[in-house]
């Protein structure tokens, strides 16, 4: 509780959170490990952060995620008097009542004041942490008497967001870009009265320091706000060169549509593959679609298509578009047993997911999905038979010119009886 980090911790923080270099990040990781093992409480805190995943540290260095280890380290660091650990544990829910009762601080406010004093002395990470305290509302737990002043979450944000923005900006100016995502949320909320020029200035500044994640964000800003294709492409590519492999999705998209660079389908695949291997769901869908259709110089390969589309669907989370697009192609593959075992029930589950978004499906996939739904309903494959609905789907697929749908419709005829009802031939 001396209010300052040890030399080893300060240097490790510089390497891990301010260097933007995977090699230096790994060096900092080893420094924290050794200092942590030697009993440095702050080192334990930051070593714990290294194990908490990409919400706490850039994934470019490849640090192992181990939440149990992180939890143990944070609790020990709190008990040993690390004010940083108190705020970190408070933020990620590890500060249980028994742990808080054992910390050598009289209150959460005492720990907060220690970090605040370091922030006011210009420490980049402490500036960032104070910004987080305000942004996430931890301030109301630290100062419960202040919480009574706010009648709603919106009222609190109007108070806290300008303060958080100021601390984040100071941390950016000190070289740390970790708070940029929250800073962007503040800007987009409009609750801090932040001018666009100020937001853009800080984003460009961080991009120029070599922050890979912000390079990608700045490229997207240039694309969306200015339609500046050449510079957007350059920042996307710079992000990849700096180690943000997920940004390769945007580079692939540029190559795929000739945005800021000559159109090159094979180059698009090359960059999509980089992002897909790093777990980017939409990139995984694109790789699956390349194999599904046989795009560019890539031959059609249904087994590879099934593999990548399955990953995309599994990883889509809240990305609704990726989920149903992958489901559409998976349903077709499973219904016909292409690249995988034929499975009518699973095929229909995927097709039913895509069915809700048919207005957004693109050619030629739209016709293929409509035809597959016609097969499912017409022959009761994975769902109850409904020939009238099947004919409707076949007709819609025929409108797109799909010959296969014509052949499938020809397997049904209008009954001479029953007022023109459809029946199988």
From TrEMBL:
Gene3D superfamilies: Tetratricopeptide repeat domain. It comes from Duncaniella muris. Pfam families: Sel1. SUPFAM superfamilies: HCP-like. The lineage of its organism: Bacteria, Pseudomonadati, Bacteroidota, Bacteroidia, Bacteroidales. This is Sel1 repeat family protein. It comes from the Bacteria.
């Amino acid at each position: 509780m001396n209010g300052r980090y040890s030399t080893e911790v300060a240097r490790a923080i510089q390497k891990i959170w301010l260097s933007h270099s995977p090699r230096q990040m790994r060096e900092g990781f080893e420094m924290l490990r050794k200092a942590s093992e030697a009993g440095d409480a702050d080192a334990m805190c930051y070593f714990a952060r290294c194990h908490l995943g990409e919400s706490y540290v850039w994934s470019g260095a490849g640090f192992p995620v181990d939440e149990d280890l992180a939890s143990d380290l944070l609790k020990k660091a709190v008990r040993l008097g690390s004010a940083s650990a108190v705020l970190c544990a408070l933020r990620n829910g590890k500060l249980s009542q028994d742990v808080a009762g054992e910390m050598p601080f009289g209150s959460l406010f005492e720990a907060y004041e220690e970090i605040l004093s370091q922030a006011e002395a210009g420490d980049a990470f402490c500036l960032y942490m104070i910004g987080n305290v305000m942004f996430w509302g931890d301030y109301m737990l630290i100062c419960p008497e202040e919480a009574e002043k706010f009648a709603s979450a919106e009222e609190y944000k109007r108070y806290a967001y300008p303060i958080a923005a100021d601390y984040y900006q100071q941390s950016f100016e000190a070289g740390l870009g970790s708070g940029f995502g929250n800073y962007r949320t503040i800007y987009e909320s409009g609750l801090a009265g932040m001018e666009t020029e100020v937001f853009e200035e800080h984003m460009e500044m961080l991009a120029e320091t070599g922050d890979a994640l912000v390079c990608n964000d700045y490229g997207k800003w240039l694309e969306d706000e200015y339609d500046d294709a050449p510079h957007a492409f350059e920042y996307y590519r710079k992000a990849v060169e700096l180690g943000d492999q997920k940004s390769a999705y945007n580079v692939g998209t540029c190559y795929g549509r000739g945005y800021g660079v000559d159109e090159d389908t094979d180059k698009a695949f090359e960059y999509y593959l980089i992002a897909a291997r790093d777990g980017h769901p939409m990139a995984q869908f694109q790789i699956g679609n390349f194999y599904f259709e046989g795009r560019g110089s890539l031959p059609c390969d249904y087994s590879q298509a099934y593999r990548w589309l399955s990953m995309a669907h599994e990883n889509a989370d809240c990305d609704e578009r990726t989920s149903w697009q992958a489901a559409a192609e998976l349903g077709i593959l499973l219904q016909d047993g292409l690249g995988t075992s034929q499975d009518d029930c699973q095929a229909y589950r995927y097709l039913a997911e895509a069915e809700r978004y048919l207005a957004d499906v693109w050619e030629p996939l739209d016709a293929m999905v409509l035809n597959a739904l016609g097969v499912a309903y017409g022959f009761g494959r994975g769902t109850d038979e409904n020939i009238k609905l099947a004919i409707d789907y076949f007709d819609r697929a025929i409108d797109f010119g799909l010959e296969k749908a014509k052949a499938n419709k020809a397997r049904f005829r209008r009954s001479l009886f029953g007022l023109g009802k459809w029946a199988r031939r």
